[in-house]
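can u pls check wat happens w/ magnesium ion
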Amino acid sequence: MGDAKSGRSSIAKVIFQKMVSKSTKLLGETSKMETYDFKIQKIEFKLYDFPAKYDINDPPPNEQMIFRNAAAMIYVLSPQSDIVKAIDNFHNIYNYLKKKNTNNCSIFIFTNKADIDLNQSDAKNEYQIKLKKRISEDEIDIKEIEFFFTSINDSSIFEAFSKVVQKMIPCSPNICKLLNHFANYSKI
Ligand SMILES: Nc1nc2c(ncn2[C@@H]2O[C@H](COP(=O)(O)OP(=O)(O)OP(=O)(O)O)[C@@H](O)[C@H]2O)c(=O)[nH]1
Ligand SMILES: [Mg+2]
């Protein structure tokens, strides 16, 4: 979910359809929900790409089910987004999930297109402070949200998405521990 033109469909297509990032320039506006299926460690996942103008207050019954059962929600915005408008929209989605979700849904915010205006770490820090301040003004506990800067033009989008999946895989902390152990012993 997220702000218009923030790159939601590009992210899905680069990760799941191996679309080269340059080709995403040709993508049209998402006018209805699109679904991407993927499997990791025999666990089946579904990713839903919703239109930016999606009305969270009035979902049809099949989409109410999606929000009720969702394990994660990624809200995508970009440095070009109007931060007040984008966070108002995020706030509505957050409140809806708090009321209706029964699956302890994890919440992520991707600031995508970080390759455009946020190349320097100072600019990133400044943006993050502004974003978190705006979110806290809505009395949302920012500790409940994980934030990532992403770009489809480098590995950051894969790293961020992998963190989302790790959070959804039930025994992932153990797998991480084992992988760290393995890395230590094999001196990788
Ligand atoms: N530089 C840069 N451009 C990006 C990135 N992600 C997406 N874009 C571009 O942003 C434009 C919009 O991308 P979309 O994927 O259509 O965005 P969307 O959020 O799905 O847009 P709507 O469905 O129309 O709301 C395209 O021209 C993409 O090539 C990124 O990480 N960096
Ligand atoms: Mg789209």
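DSSP finds seven helices and five strands in the chain.
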